[in-house]
């Protein structure tokens, strides 16, 4: 199961169930996929086919939705 947290600008932001403990988010679109750490800071963990421009856009979206991602992570993984 991989719950979607939000979709914006053609990107899907989601978690994989029980993948690993460190807080992170996966992003996928028709152009590629990426993984960003959310703690201790927002940082690219993995990139597959996204350009630097796209990665900056994704990082900006993560920053703008950080509270939503943090809350969704806490809610989803607290049980």
What does this structure look like?
The protein has about 80 residues and is of the alpha+beta class. It has one domain. The chain is built from two helices and five strands; from the N terminus they run βββββαα. The protein has helices at about 50-65, 65-75; strands at about 5-10, 10-15, 25-30, 30-35, 45-50. The protein has a five-stranded antiparallel sheet with strand order 1-2-3-4-5, covered by helices on one side. Strand 3 and strand 4 (about 30-35) form a beta hairpin.
Distance between the termini: 15 Å
Ranges where pLDDT stays below 50 over 5 or more residues in a row are none
Note the overall shape.
globular
Instruction: Give helix % range.
Output: 25-40%
Name the structural class. Answer: alpha+beta
Classify the beta-strand content into a percent band.
Answer: 25-35%
Secondary structure tally, helices? 2
Radius of gyration: 12 Å
Strand order of the largest sheet: 1-2-3-4-5
How many domains would you count in the coordinates? 1
Q: List the helices and strands in order.
A: EEEEEHH
Mean pLDDT: 94
Q: Describe the biggest sheet? A: 5 strands, antiparallel
The number of E-state strands comes to: 5
């Amino acid at each position: 199961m991989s719950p979607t947290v939000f979709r914006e600008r053609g990107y899907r932001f989601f978690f994989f169930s029980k993948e690993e403990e460190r807080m992170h988010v996966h992003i996928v679109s028709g152009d590629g996929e990426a993984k960003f750490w959310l703690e201790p800071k927002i940082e690219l963990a993995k990139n597959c086919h996204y350009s630097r421009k796209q990665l900056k856009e994704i990082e900006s979206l993560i920053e703008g939705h950080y509270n939503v991602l943090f809350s969704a992570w806490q809610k989803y993984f607290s049980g």
